[in-house]
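Why should sequence recovery work at all? Because a backbone constrains its sequence more than one might expect. Tight turns favour small or flexible residues, buried strands favour hydrophobic ones, and helices have their own preferences. The token representation captures these environments compactly. In the example below, the structure is given first.
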């Protein structure tokens, strides 16, 4: 997670603005796709700890997920309308080849897995590539909502359960507790996607 003055100032601003600030920041993070990795998690956790009620936590998760979805959808549309050159300037060719291979085989599933994984996992190339490779928009949206929604839900659950202790030791708790859980779930989803793909291939009729 970033520990710069910019991140700190954005976090203070978002917390002071409440749910409106949280939504705006997740939308901003969605547009920049990870240039401020982890700031949305920090602000969401801080907000839920301050309110410490299930209703506020659910509202925060819903708005954060919506903001991330809208930002990612904008980038998806840029990719769909010819953002290949921008993508190749920003990311290493070897990484892009792997991402494009996964999306070609599994469709929108890798996007959901990437949306769930914490920084510094590269989320942006999956979103760009999904647009460039014309993954169906509804499937893309579902994957982003599931991935980000699950990640933010776990943020909120930890904030409700641990309260101020989580803020006092955020870095240690994040990497020791949240990250392994998210990675296990993401790997499980990826395996499920591979099995689904294999079964779909086996069900296809054989044409001599």
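From this structural description, the recovered sequence reads:
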């Amino acid at each position: 997670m970033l520990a710069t003055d910019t991140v700190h100032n954005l976090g203070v601003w978002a917390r002071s603005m409440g749910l409106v600030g949280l939504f705006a920041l997740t939308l901003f993070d969605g547009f920049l796709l990870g240039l401020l990795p982890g700031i949305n998690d920090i602000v969401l956790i801080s907000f839920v700890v301050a309110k410490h009620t299930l209703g506020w936590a659910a509202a925060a998760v819903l708005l954060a997920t919506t903001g991330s979805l809208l930002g990612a959808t904008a980038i998806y549309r840029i990719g769909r309308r010819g953002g290949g050159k921008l993508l190749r300037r920003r990311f290493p060719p070897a990484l892009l080849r792997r991402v494009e291979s996964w999306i070609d085989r599994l469709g929108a599933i890798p996007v959901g897995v990437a949306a769930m994984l914490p920084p510094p996992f590269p989320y942006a190339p999956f979103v760009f590539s999904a647009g460039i490779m014309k993954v169906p928009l509804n499937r893309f949206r579902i994957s982003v909502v599931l991935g980000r929604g699950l990640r933010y839900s776990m943020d909120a659950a930890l904030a409700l359960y641990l309260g101020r202790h989580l803020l006092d030791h955020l870095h240690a708790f994040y990497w020791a507790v949240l990250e392994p859980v998210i990675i296990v779930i993401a790997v499980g989803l990826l395996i499920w996607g591979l099995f689904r793909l294999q079964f779909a291939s086996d069900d296809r009729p054989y044409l001599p």
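A few observations help interpret the result. Residues 5-195 form one domain.
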